[in-house]
Fold this protein.
Amino acid sequence: MIKIEIKKGDITVEQTDAIVNAANNSLLGGGGVDGAIHRAAGSELLEACRKLNGCQTGEAKLTAGFRLAAKYVIHTVGPVWKGGVEQESEKLKSAYKNSLKLADENGCKSIAFPNISTGVYGFPKEKAVLIVKETIDTLLPDLKNITQINFVCFDEENYQYYLKTFNHV
Ligand code: AR6
């Protein structure tokens, strides 16, 4: 049985085994949730990221969590929204799928996701959450270790969409 929790707040304080970072292709830091995670984890996180040689959109890479409560950070790169003509939905699906698989393969029992691509990258929030729900539902039967998935929403709009989509209201 997998527990899904919808939360409002800052992902950097999550106590899950892994937290997911909405990074960019360089993996060398940025603003938004990426900036917050790097600040909270400390400079060792950037050192670890330098060794990863970046990350393709839709792929995921793992580092330690350093000063975070989380043991691991899973760095993934969501698509930049281009109006829907560049397979953004497929790429967003891959980002969630590959992050979840990587955490599961590394023995994580719990993982926390931010709302990937819905900030600076401009992916429509309501469309994104439907893709997230569908992706998670499809993958649940394949998970060996994960028993808890937290979706940590920073803005009220995403939080309301998540509550509605995951039937928590
Ligand atoms: N905890 C949880 N969610 C957060 C936090 C936080 N501390 N801070 C912001 N969010 P964004 P993207 C939410 O822009 O759209 C970076 O510069 C925010 O409300 O962080 O995937 C990277 O380096 C939004 O819903 O990521 C890339 O260049 C969500 O996180 C680029 O931004 C994602 O917003 C990636 O853009």
Observations:
- The chain has one domain: 3-165.
- The chain is about 35% helix and 20% strand.
